[in-house]
Amino acid sequence: MPIRESCDRTLDEVLKAHGLGWDLFADVILDASRNGCVTVAYDGRVLFANKVAREELGIRPGTALADRAPELLARLEGVLDGEEDPGGQLLARGEATYLTKVTRVQVGSALLGALCVFIDMTNSEAALRQMRAYAELIREQEAIINSLDEGIWISDSEAVVQRINPASERLNHIKAAEVVGRSMRDLVAAGVFDRSATLEVLARGVPVTMLQSREGRKLVLTGIPVLDDAGRIFRVVVTERDITEVEALQKELEEQEAMRDRYRDRLLELQVAEVESRRVIARSECMQLALRQAIRVASVDSTVLMTGESGVGKELFADLICRYSDRSGKPLVKINCGAIPESLVEAELFGYEKGAFTGAQSKGKPGYFELADGGILFLDEVGELPLASQVKLLRFLEDGRVTRVGATQGRKLDVRILAATHQDLRAMVERGSFRLDLYYRLSVIPISIPPLRQRTECILPLLQYYLELFAGRHGVHRRFTRAASDALLAYAWPGNVRELANLCERLVVMADSELIGLNDLPQDVRGGARTGGAAAGAQSLARMLEDTERALLVEARKRHGSQALMAKALGIDQSTVARKLKRYAIH
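RESULT FIELD:
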């Protein structure tokens, strides 16, 4: 019937009209509930179970509650014995979760049993788990923020402090209660801080970093704006880092580095002293500087370009670098680029394959680069290289690969390059006879070796060294007179140390007595020390011609560089120039 028609009728009349009794009505009411309802007799037997209990929990009348819900047995017994049910126990069945409640069913003083209610908490439990997870995340964040050594300040968009962590309290010697809820503007006005990173961020809208000094300590402040969905700042997070100890540590490290530099310099001085005690004599400051540079670069694999006049000792410097390098036990291959015929330069340097050209060996031949693999290749007079060979040398310096003449594939090599020249490579670059890119590749570390005339402090020690060396070889004793020493000291030495050594050997062999006097010296060495016919007559014509020829060759070498240009300037052929250079040991 319509609801409005039953409004004036009693419940008994409604039930009678539908043929229902009170017991059946109770069952209908309980079946309509979304919660499970179960009545249990005093002995634990189920008397009634509504639809939810039957279908979702599997509890049916006539069964023992202990069989279907043993988790409730202890509480059921307690309630039947008169105890109050604490409630709150959760019962999981499949993916559903139920909150249980047990209540005594009593009529007068007669105990009939108990009513068990199962309240579906599945959705509520999921929300509760999310809340618990969120609460756990909040606790973790709190623990992280509070355990940081860096200070944290969090302010809102009005610069009002929302919270600070314990590190900030320690760094600023304040309590959170003293600043939380206050504006940073008020704190700056009150002199608590002289500047505020929070205010800078709010004013500029970008991250800000600044330095502050507080209580004798230096702090680095970094302010970060936090934006909402609309792109507006709603929080500002400022971190504070104490760099006082970092600066102290940095200062200590700098002092240790300075000490290491002093030790390194001292070691370098000892190494230089050791070198001086052997073949290299460096009494002048400019020579000592060159030696220090050579020893310093020995420990790295950078390319070195040594420049200086002929005879200054560039090869000796190459030996020195090799001896103090990590490649000291590996090959040191030396090549005079000017002594190789131009047509054979590439084959000699880079090697050639079988049948690469007429006259080639049947098995091919490795070049100097391959022979120096793992070690050092010293290219003396590198300015003499033809342009074609310069290209291949440049390619090797760029990728470490060489290609034999007649080969189609290159090979990777591990070779450190030391180069030397007496020529002005910059001037050669301007003339187009030397590649600019190769010049820059070679001169990664340039070392200029001074000529002997610029290191006069070394002349007398060198003379004494070579005089004793050659005298010992020949089993004689020789020494210079004061006049001879003065003349040798005043001489310009255009051939440098090589000329000095050759002269000492000649004087040891040719001198008639132990004393080597002024008359024993060549005319060009004596210079204006003595004049007169007797002195001139003492010099043989052959010696005078030799000295003159040698001086002309040295000057031509210095002025023109290559043998071809020398031959053109002197009016002789190149083979004659090469022969005479070899005769007079001019390099």
